[in-house]
Amino acid sequence: MIWQLRVGAAALVLALAGCAAPQSGGVQTAPVAPEATPAPSSSAPLATPTSLTPGPKRIVPRAVVPPVMPPYLAPQADTAVASGVRAGPAFAALGATEAEALAALAAFRTSCPSLIKRTDRSGLTRGADWVPACTAAAGWGRANALDFFARYLEPVVVGSGQAFATGYYEPEIAGSRVRRSGYDVPIYGRPSDLVDVDLGQFAADLKGRKIRGQVKGTTLGLYPDRAAIESGAIGYRAPVVAWGKDPIEVFFLQVQGSGLLRLPDGGIMRVGYATQNGREYTGIGKYMKDRGLFAPGQSTSMQGIIARLRQEPDGGAAIMNANKSYVFFRELGGAGPLGAMGYPVMGRTTVAADPAFTPLGAPLFLSMDHGEASGLWVAQDTGGAIKGANRFDTYWGSGAEARTVAGGMSARGQAWLLLPIGTAARLNGGAGGAAAARP
Q1: Domain layout of the chain by residue ranges
Q2: Which residues contact 407 (CB under 8 A, 6 or more apart)?
Q3: The model's pTM
């Protein structure tokens, strides 16, 4: 979703690992899109929603990470609990600022209804665990936000705590509601023959896993991949939500999973993730790097990738088709874009995370070698390339600055999840309590 906004940018990360692709990556982790929001009746410019308002400038925390970090290695465990969980330092020792705590508290408050109701796939928490913090957050004022986190939540480390963070943003591209000269790249809505299957209905050990495909006779098969769709494989089975001007920009709109279309009449149309074709997401940056398509010294940021695509005789079509994943959109009205939880995401506050390792809605603190990524965040989104413990995609809002920051984000460091007081002790048998478990 915007969640799929998973950055049109993910800089070196996009090049090396693929970005968050607010699309829900592969067939095994397809997210459930939130209910459609009524679309505006005109193309008049949308008011800038608060979710896109930049938050406080990130400041390198007092707990500075070493300048040289080892490579991030995704753990082999399937969940956070299997990776191992231990108590971290006291919250005050992390070095969060009051400004970022205030923004994180607002995002946490928004996420609370889902935190309490939804099953936590990570195995770290139960809905009831969050009730004290959520009850307090509902009535907490705008003062002393740091005290809220210190009083109700405790830092815990999942696995080694070694973190890797990329960035994503809400792109703005040229588009039109109707096909016209210069606007001939379709931005498709959900196809009528795309089928979602909840595997948990068939086997208990598959709970939470979903696949997508196409019924062919009496068999469910793979849905057409990007190359086939671009060649007309879905025909008229998918509505065209809008028309883009540039195929490369539309491709990165899909990578992000959400965006703003600048219409010829000066209006703005917001489109968001509706669903995805169920195919595995492939980061084309890594694909290009592995094939030696970058000249020595050529930038492998998102901007560098786009520049290289434009040098290809086919406009980069063959390279983009290496990513078989294809995202379908719907028009959004009101505040947005929406994350995987169905709530508006907040620039410089929301991160995408793997729900098997991070409870969606949980706050977290990052201490990174890229100063802007350091600080308090809230996990409100997911992404096709965001897999494993301590793997995050930071959201930066919309506009030129957001695009630049997200496109250059590739940070390594340490992560602490902020979970209800007593979580670490409970997960470790209750011996000694959380304070005793801290190093």
Answers
A1: 11-168+335-437, 170-328
A2: 7, 8, 9, 10, 11, 14, 167, 169, 301, 302, 303
A3: 0.71
